[in-house]
Design brief:
With 167 residues, this protein is of the alpha/beta class. The protein is built from 5 helices and 6 strands; from the N terminus they run ββααββαβαβα. The radius of gyration is 14 Å and the shape is globular. The two termini are 19 Å apart. The structure holds ligand AR6. The site of ligand AR6 has 24 residues, from β2 and α1.
Length: 167
């Protein structure tokens, strides 16, 4: 089956998919942006599980239950802080998508939504980051077409336009 890949504008916490991805920080103990929204919507049990995970390295990912979210799972990944492009940001961002994808496959996830990792507080330019996101996921799906639906969840119409230009 061919995977449906699409971009939408939404609050990722509302999406009724198997799994949503969180743009977290290395502590995994919550923060602002999409991370804050996910913790608020999932409820305090999420923080409790996150405390047991021992943090997460930049470019890596960890999985938890979804608690009060419609999604069954949350994959928490830590994007790079943008430092101008010469600090391995590209590889680290691609690794976020790859590690998240691998964890999703391991749990037999069939539908997943990604926020635009690193492009908020961490300052990665959306024009560059969206290309990394789409290219990485498309190449993973070529080898492992095991997910039915991948959603790039944008938080503004401008970001949606950027993603739709690539898709
Ligand atoms: N649904 C979907 N996308 C959202 C939502 C939402 N509810 N809220 C924000 N976005 P950011 P980062 C978008 O800053 O750059 C946290 O404090 C937002 O518009 O959430 O990876 C963490 O704890 C942007 O397009 O994540 C880290 O410390 C995208 O999500 C740090 O921020 C990512 O923006 C991570 O920074």
């Amino acid at each position: 089956m061919t995977t449906i890949i699409r971009a939408v504008v939404a609050d990722i916490t509302t999406l009724n998919l198997d799994c949503i991805v969180n743009a977290a920080n290395t502590s995994l103990l919550g923060g602002g942006g999409v991370d804050g929204a996910i913790h608020r919507a999932a409820g305090p049990d999420l923080l409790h599980e996150c405390r047991l995970l021992g943090g997460c390295k930049v470019g890596d990912a960890k999985i938890t239950k979804g608690y009060r979210l419609p999604a069954k799972y949350i994959i928490h990944t830590v994007g790079p802080v943008w430092q101008g492009g010469q600090a391995n940001e590209f590889e680290l961002l691609a690794s976020c998508y790859q590690r998240s994808f691998e964890l999703a496959i391991a749990k037999d996830v069939k539908s997943i939504a990604f926020p635009s990792i690193s492009t908020g507080i961490y300052g990665y330019p959306i024009e560059h980051a969206s290309k990394v996101a789409v290219a990485t996921i498309q190449s993973l799906l070529l080898d492992q077409p095991l997910i039915d639906e991948v959603v790039f969840c944008c938080f503004s119409h401008r970001d949606l336009e950027v993603y739709n230009d690539i898709l």
